[in-house]
Design brief:
Layout (H helix, E strand, L loop, with lengths): L31 E4 L9 E3 L5 E5 L8 E5 L10 E7 L9 E5 L7 E10 L2 H6 L7 E8 L8 E4 L5 H6 L5 E10 L14 E6 L19 E4 L9 E3 L5 E5 L8 E5 L10 E7 L6 E2 L1 E6 L7 E10 L2 H6 L5 E8 L11 E4 L3 E2 L9 E10 L8 E7 L8 E4 L7 E7 L2 E10 L2 E10 L8 E7 L4 E2 L2 E2 L7 E9 L4 E8 L2 E12 L22 E4 L7 E7 L2 E9 L5 E6 L9 E8 L15 E10 L4 E8 L2 E12 L7
Antiparallel strand pairs: 1-3, 2-5, 3-4, 5-10, 6-9, 6-11, 7-8, 7-10, 12-14, 13-16, 14-15, 16-23, 17-22, 18-21, 18-24, 19-20, 19-23, 25-26, 25-34, 26-27, 27-28, 28-29, 29-32, 30-31, 32-33, 33-34, 35-36, 35-42, 36-37, 37-38, 38-39, 39-40, 40-41, 41-42
């Protein structure tokens, strides 16, 4: 019996994008909004704007679900300023900070934070009668870890110095980023910097500091060297758009090029994708739809292989190129119907040298000259890490841990443990970008929304508890730091159990199993969203965790024993719980107490009837899979 294994259970508060793939950024074209000086984000000002400003919905946001970016960075701090007037109470010090993240940091990238002080809001807004104190520049080189949120804070102005200068009541905070990483102005390709979680004194969010107050439009246009978040575009004939369509597969939005030409050399949508360790072959594809299939309407899917990220971004030192051309002939493709197309599979062993990244490309042409509408959605690859799915723990602190699941929307999971004598469970935010061994990933961590046994509260906006930074060294080992309100803990994690049939420790593909391993997933009852289960079918049977609340409203997690399962036949799961542990001193697995049982019948690998009964009461649940495990075939 696996007790106190890391858990992958589901409290059903997860916002997911159907059809997304874990290794890509923005496979389903998430909502974005464009802002100008005349129409800035709510509560913010844009000044000296040379590039478009965007708020984008992403899975890797630090706080909430949105991030801010300037589309193209300039070589100086003069252009592109994001600013806000913030009230300062008398007698208080003043500083501010911002969380920053870049997929391509460089010592040539730099951040500038600036504060100006004013006597009243009107003067602050108009930048008139500025006080003599302030207007200092706080500059930071952005030679930081890639894809990890890093906090930067200005210097602090002491309340006594501010009082001596006339006691200003308003501060105008300014955020600026420049790029001197390349000889171009701007760099080619442009380096991207994301901003989130802007805070004033005491770490409190400024107004709309998480960019959550936004209305996403139905259509956003993109031009040369820009692109939907995560992508770049080249050789455009007349731009491209992401637009709302009622037939979209994911996020309610689709992508299309505005003007198709008669050549595949025009209109390229591209992204660099890491090759996970253990990759045997590489393949990618997309869903396409057109109102008028034609043999003259074609799509080229291209893969260029490179040694590293910089090579891929700058298209240097290419190892190999593969083109796959698909023509949408009426005999094979129906009008106004989504069809899946994909590249041929490229065995990694046949590449002439070791590749670390692949640059995927989608382009299209229409030799009829009719510019037939062609829509794209759910771009995906076979590059997933199903090996990361499983129970993870640190042997030095057995009794707490994590369950992780590589899903069709990214990697996510749950922590279970204790805090001040009570049980604690936390939901890890989705990481929807590449997972590269040796590179950290940084996700928000959410606490329970509240409720009682069988009556959870609305889980759609769980409270932010803290953050977790994880570095996978292999598919069986990782280091992690979990930080929350006034507490922090580091782990040397090992993989305790994984799906029956996965090849460990070689990180090779799923070899298959004669057991119902497809039960490995996050499960919940839609009638009681806010509590849920995660199950893992390990080599010695099914086990899992329940996450919910006690009869008196405290967080409750329950660990099951291991049992073999046959679809359609009932099984009994013994349930165990712990009492009295702390954040760094959990209850030992052997000290768990019996809570009760769960009687469950899996009618198939997507639905089950379950009765849970024990210390806190009885519930009848009709549970279904909320999010699938990537890499497993359907049952």
């Amino acid at each position: 019996m696996y007790r106190l294994l890391p858990t992958l259970s589901l409290a059903a508060g997860l916002a997911i994008a159907p059809g997304a793939y874990a290794v890509l950024v923005n496979p389903g074209f998430s909502p974005e909004a464009v802002f100008t000086e005349a129409s800035p984000p709510t509560a913010w000002d844009l000044r000296d704007q040379e590039s478009r400003a965007l708020i984008s919905q992403v899975g890797f946001a630090h706080t909430g679900s949105n991030v801010f970016r300037f589309e193209v960075l300039e070589r100086g701090f003069g252009p592109n300023k994001l600013e806000q007037c913030v009230f300062r109470p008398s007698g208080t010090d003043f500083d501010f900070g911002v969380m920053l993240r870049s997929p391509m940091p460089d010592e040539g990238l730099a951040l500038r934070l600036n504060i100006e002080f004013y006597g009243n809001r009107d003067n602050c807004q108009e930048r008139e009668d500025r006080f003599s104190i302030g207007n200092d520049d706080f500059d930071f080189d952005l030679d930081i870890a890639a894809n990890v949120w890093t906090e930067f804070r200005s210097g602090s102005y002491d309340s006594s110095d501010l009082a001596s200068a006339g006691n200003p009541q308003w501060a105008r905070i300014s955020i600026r980023v420049r790029d001197r990483s390349d000889d171009g102005n701007p760099g080619d390709p442009p380096r991207i910097v994301y901003l989130d979680h802007v805070t004033g004194p005491n770490g409190e969010l400024v107004e709309n500091g998480d960019f959550s107050v936004v209305e996403f439009p139905g259509l956003v246009e993109f031009d040369e060297d820009s692109g939907p978040i995560g992508y770049t575009m080249r050789d455009l004939e007349d731009g491209a758009v992401v637009e709302t369509r009622d037939f979209a597969r994911s996020n309610g939005r689709v992508f299309r090029f505005n003007q198709l030409t008669d050549a595949f050399g025009d209109n390229k949508l591209e992204q660099c994708v890491a090759l996970p360790s253990g990759t045997n072959s590489v393949q990618f594809g997309t869903w396409v739809r057109t109102p008028q299939p034609s043999e003259e309407l074609g799509v080229r899917l291209n893969m260029d292989f490179y040694p590293g990220l910089e090579d891929c971004l700058f298209r240097n030192n290419r190892i190999q190129r593969t083109d796959s051309d698909v023509f949408l002939v009426p005999e094979q493709y129906q009008a106004n119907t989504w069809e899946r197309i994909q590249t041929t599979s490229v065995p990694v062993s046949e590449l002439p040298t070791t590749a670390g990244y692949v640059r995927i490309r989608v382009s299209a042409r229409d030799t009829s000259g009719a510019n037939t509408p062609l829509f794209f959605d759910d771009i995906g690859t076979n590059l997933v890490n199903p090996q990361l799915t499983g129970a993870w723990f640190d042997p030095a602190t057995a009794g707490q841990g994590f369950n992780l699941q590589s899903t069709t929307v990214g990697l996510f999971g749950y922590y279970y443990g204790y805090d001040n004598g009570d049980q604690l469970w936390l939901q890890l935010g989705i990481h929807d970008g590449p997972i590269v061994f040796g590179q950290p990933i940084d996700v928000p961590v959410f606490g329970p929304s509240g409720g009682t046994f069988g009556q959870p509260d609305d889980p759609t906006a769980p409270p932010v508890w803290g953050r977790m930074v994880t570095t996978f060294e292999s598919c069986t080992s990782a280091t992690a730091t979990l930080t929350g309100p006034g507490i922090s803990q580091s782990f040397d994690l090992g993989l305790l159990a994984t799906i029956d049939g996965l090849q460990i420790p070689d990180c090779t593909d799923f070899a298959g199993s004669d057991q119902p391993v497809q039960l490995t997933a996050a499960w919940f009852d839609p009638a009681t969203s806010g509590q849920g289960w995660n199950f893992l079918y390990a080599p010695n049977g099914l086990f899992g965790y329940f996450y919910g609340y006690t009869a008196t409203g405290e967080p409750l997690w329950l660990a099951t024993g291991n049992v073999p399962v046959t679809l359609g036949e009932p099984v009994t799961l013994d349930l165990f719980y712990g009492q009295g542990g702390t954040f760094t001193a959990p209850v030992a697995p052997e000290a768990l107490e019996t809570w009760g049982t769960a009687e469950v019948t899996f009618s198939d690998c997507r639905n089950a009837e379950l009765t849970i009964s024990g210390v806190d009461g009885v519930q009848d649940q009709s549970i279904t899979v909320l999010v699938l495990t990537e890499g497993l075939t359907d049952c």
